Amino acid sequence: MALACRPSLLIADEPTTALDVTIQAQILNLLRDLQKKFDLSIVLITHNLGVVAQACDRMAVLYAGSVAEISPTYFVYEKPHHPYSKGLLAAIPRPGSRGQRMAAIPGTVPSNPGEVIGCPFAPRCANVFDRCLKEKPPLVKVGESHESACFLPAGS
User: Fold this and answer.
1) Which of 1, 36, 98, 116 is 20–30 Å from 107 (CA)?
2) Which of 55, 53, 59, 65 minimizes the C-alpha distance to 29?
3) Which residue stretches of 39-154 are H helix?
4) How many helices (H) and strands (E) does the chain have?
5) What is the pLDDT of residues 31-50, one digit of tens each?
6) Rounded to 5, what percent of the chain is helix, strand, coil?
7) Measured between alpha carbons, how far is 136 from 54 in angstroms, rounded to an integer?
């Protein structure tokens, strides 16, 4: 039904959640086929970074309702800039890590992000400094087609 009126954009919100890996792959293949057949753009909303790596050309990492980082997908995986992106990638289980303690981002997401003064990630960030507590960082270019909402200089 979503494609009945031939939209140019399809929003797929958690299309692979709670599915086994085989069915996930089938859903992602179906989305890819539909994208080609109907010449559409797809916004894929997911918490599964494996799905993002497999299916997305560009990605936006969101934290507390704001974009923390946006770029072609491989830039975030190869050279993440925002401390939240770095924390997410560090928490992905790796082959050979069975029995080892998994990485975690300390703290909790703010319950009311609209009331946060400064960077919403500041209370959980290991790199926080005074400016982070007073100002919300805008998205700034940190590389070719790569933007981050962080006051850390590019390359940090």
Assistant:
1) 98
2) 55
3) 49-55, 73-78, 83-90, 130-134
4) 5, 6
5) 999 999 999 999 999 999 98
6) 30, 20, 50
7) 32
pLDDT of res. 113: 86
Q: What is the mean pLDDT of residues 99-122?
A: 91
Asked whether the beta carbons of 115 and 124 are under 8 A apart, the reply is: no
Question: Is the CB of residue 59 less than 8 Å from the CB of residue 67?
Answer: no
Return d(Cα 11, Cα 100) in angstroms, integer.
Answer: 37
Give pLDDT, residue 66: 94
Q: What is the pLDDT of residue 156?
A: 67
- 102 vs 56, higher pLDDT: 56
Q: How far apart are CA 145 and CA 152, in angstroms?
A: 17
Contact 84, 105 (CB under 8 A): yes
To which H or E segment does residue 30 belong?
A: helix 21-38
Closest C-alpha to 72, from 63, 64, 80? 80
- pLDDT of res. 78: 94
Token output for 118? 């400064």
